[in-house]
Amino acid sequence: MLWCEMRRGEAGKVGPLMGLIGALYLLLEDRTESDWIGWWADTGIVVQLFGVIVMGSVMAATATWTASRGQRDRTRPWTDTAARGGWSQALLIWASVWLWTLLAYAVHVVIAFGRTAGVSDEFAPVWEPLLLGAAMSALQIAVGVVVGTLLPSRLMAPVVGAVWYALFVAAAFAPGSGIGRFAPAVDEHWAGSLVPDTALMLSSAAWCLAAAVAVLAVPALVRRPVVSPRPWGVVPVAVVALLAAGALVTLPEKATPWAAAAPQPEDPPCATTGRTTACLWPANRHLLPRLERAVADVDRALGPLEGFNRRLDEQWLDPGPVAGEAGEFAVMTPDVGVRRLSQDLLAAAMPRPPEGCEREGSKAAGGLPDDFLLAAVVHHRAQAPFDYYGEEFAAAVEKVVTAPRAEQDKWIGKAVDSVRGCAPLPGLPR
Question: Would the N or C end of the chain have less CB density within 10 A of its end CB?
Fold first, then answer.
């Protein structure tokens, strides 16, 4: 009966179509600019997000249309008096639509993980976001079946899809409202410094699945013509849904709602050239050859200059006991190039003013904080110049970089001391 319903229902056409759309979305992503191809956790998040917000909303609308078929075909009096109860009929429609959704979802997972495997040096799929996405799509489809059964109007199918989409948008704009835990659509950037909050994700997945099965009993309970479900079938599922909902309410809120801090690695991948060392999270080990070239560029640019951060760590990575101050840089894309890495490392190597120090704008820097001028000079010497912020700023940079090398080094040394001491920069070389 399930196979028959899968063949005759509208989901048999919509599901493959959504599978094709999702496949194109994942395949057409530019690897060099992607913020997920190469990171296993972010890959799972992207597949989950499309599966819930786009495919889940469309399949919920499809389920609404399929559930109202009896009203359109004028066969509802027959189905209402069938031997199978209303709950089992609703479960059959729900399962047929959800299975088509899961088939498309599996295709998306294979494509996305295949692209990430082509970049990453390790095979470490993260399954929690994918499980959560599958469970949430089950709840979306179940609500569609209920609405289509109770309100069998042709207009309700697009309304259900639009309402689900609007709910996810509202949850994104109200992160502290708690909506996201009960209608989860994870939209976070984890890179290598965060891992899934497994307890929260499994609790939310349990809520979605139990609530989906329980809510499907509602039409059979409120409509008199159909056979009502027996309490021993509905009550345990409803209890599981309530327990999962209670767990979601009691779990604490965090800055990153669905993630926890990754454990600090004992031996992070690092590259060292001269006096400069940079380290990455293990998830970015595939970037180590590029990091080595970028570190060499930075060490060559800084040369014998003092006062710069020579230990550079990826964001949230604990540098441990190091001599002097450590700089911090972010890896925004898993396939980042050497040039961008060099620029980010050089920015992380710049001296920082003491806490509470506010750099004032200077005339030489065109009204910008004067430490911008120091950064621009150092980047220019490294052949990675900034975009200049006006003619005055450009003239000030040119005045420094066209001076003899010894005068440049002397001015940079004084400027570094000024920044660390929260003092104005020295006058420009003559």
Answer: C
Give the C-alpha separation, 122 to 118, whole Å.
10
Do 398 and 364 contact (CB within 8 A), yes or no? no
Q: Per residue in 207-261, pLDDT tens?
A: 999 999 999 999 888 876 666 677 778 899 999 999 999 999 998 888 888 999 9
Residue 328's nearest CA partner among 307, 350, 306 is: 350
Q: What pLDDT digit, counting tens, does each position of 58-113 carry? A: 999 999 999 988 676 666 665 665 556 778 889 999 999 999 999 999 999 999 99
**Exposed, middle or buried by CB within 10 Å (0-12, 13-18, 19+), for 105?**
buried
State whether residue 85 is helix, strand or coil.
coil
d(CA 123, CA 138): 28
Query: In 10 A of CB 377, how many CB atoms?
Result: 23
Task: Classify the C-alpha dihedral 114-116-119-121 as positive or negative.
Answer: negative
Which single residue is written with the structure tokens 């003491």? Answer: 354
Contact 291, 329 (CB under 8 A): no
Amino acid letter, residue 260: A
Distances (CA, A) of 29 to 7, 23, 40, 211, 285: 32, 10, 16, 35, 22
Distance, CA of 366 to CA of 303 (rounded, Å): 28
419 φ, ψ to 5°? Answer: -65, -45
CB 343 within 8 A of CB 290: no
Nearest to 276 by CA among 291, 306, 298: 298
Q: Is pTM, for the whole model, over 0.90?
A: no
Residues 260-281 have a mean pLDDT of 93
Strands (E) in 136-245, as ranges, are 194-196
Helices then strands, counting H and E runs in the chain, come out as 18, 6
- The alpha carbon dihedral of 307, 319, 271, 371 has a sign of negative
Q: Is 59 helix (H, G, I), strand (E, B) or coil?
A: helix
Contact 395, 366 (CB under 8 A): no
CA distance 186 to 259: 10
